UniProtKB/TrEMBL annotation:
One of its GO terms (biological process) is ubiquitin-dependent protein catabolic process. Residues 104-224 form the Right handed beta helix domain. Keywords: Repeat. This is Right handed beta helix domain-containing protein. Residues 245-265 are annotated as: Disordered. The keyword Transcription does not apply.
Length: 265
């Protein structure tokens, strides 16, 4: 289960690399099995394959590296496949997370954590595909695909100050990215939100965010929607200059006190 293999990615933390491969009896069958044995500075490497698993990580750093989001899929029928709670550091990359159950769960759930999640995919959540929340949430969520979720792609709320950058959010049933609640203030930069069934980005219920260099195109409604109590930076009148909000049938941006009227809320 511990390999001296030059093809494995280096572990910058200096610990061991534990390998997951359901087809190799020398390896761990599931990522959660490897995580149970991993010490603080160890790394988990997941070889190509589809794994039915549910990963819960709390109060410890994590380094979970997949062979690529087109090659490694972790899915769950009973709850979201990835749940992080107060994770103080590390990285998760190169994995597709898919929820295939019928209850209200997200594909990626991050509470009060500060790790990096990159080059992953979050898909088919019954709620939003990715939820980032809690006043200590400083996660960096970058370079990911978030698609085909029943609500919004990425939902940032409950005071989170996440960095959401360089992601593509598409084919979600509500918004590409949504932000809610007083004290919530993520940096949302260089994301591409397209082909979502409502608008590209929503700020509502006192939510704030830095919105810069985002591309919100070909959504069913607007490029960006904000409510009068929201706190976008720059101001609503300057969002068109700071972001590419073209090719949305209802227009580039709008300020409205009923942002969820079209879905009966």
């Amino acid at each position: 289960m511990l390999f001296m293999d030059e093809s494995l990615p280096p572990n910058p933390a200096g610990g061991k690399t534990l390998v997951v491969d359901a087809t190799d009896p020398r390896c761990y069958a599931l990522p959660s099995d490897a995580l149970r044995d991993a010490a603080e500075h160890d790394q988990i490497y997941i070889r190509p394959g589809t794994y039915e698993d549910k990963i819960f990580i709390s109060n410890r750093p994590v380094r979970l590296i997949g062979a690529g989001r087109d090659q490694v899929q972790i899915f769950s029928r009973r709850g979201g496949p990835l749940y992080l709670q107060q994770v103080p550091g590390g990285r998760i990359s190169g994995i597709a997370f898919r929820y295939v159950g019928s209850d209200q769960h997200s594909a990626i759930n991050v509470l009060d954590s500060t790790c990096v999640i990159s080059d992953c995919r979050a898909m088919e959540g019954i709620l939003s595909g990715v939820v980032l929340y809690g006043p200590e949430c400083r996660v960096t969520f970058s370079g990911n695909e978030v698609c085909r979720n029943r609500e919004s792609g990425i939902f940032v709320f409950a005071g989170a100050h996440a960095r959401v950058a360089d992601n593509r959010c598409f084919d979600n049933h509500h918004f590409g990215i949504a932000v809610r609640d007083a004290g919530t203030c993520p940096d949302i930069v260089r994301n591409q939100c397209d082909s979502n069934m409502l608008s590209g980005i929503l700020l509502f219920h006192h939510g704030g965010a830095l919105l810069a260099d985002n591309h919100c195109r070909d959504n069913q409604h607007w490029g960006v929607v904000v409510t009068p109590d929201a706190r976008p930076n720059p101001a609503p009148s300057e969002l068109v200059q700071a972001n590419d909000l073209t090719r949305n049938p209802r227009g580039a941006s709008v300020v409205t006190d009923q942002p969820l009227e079209d879905i009966g809320r």
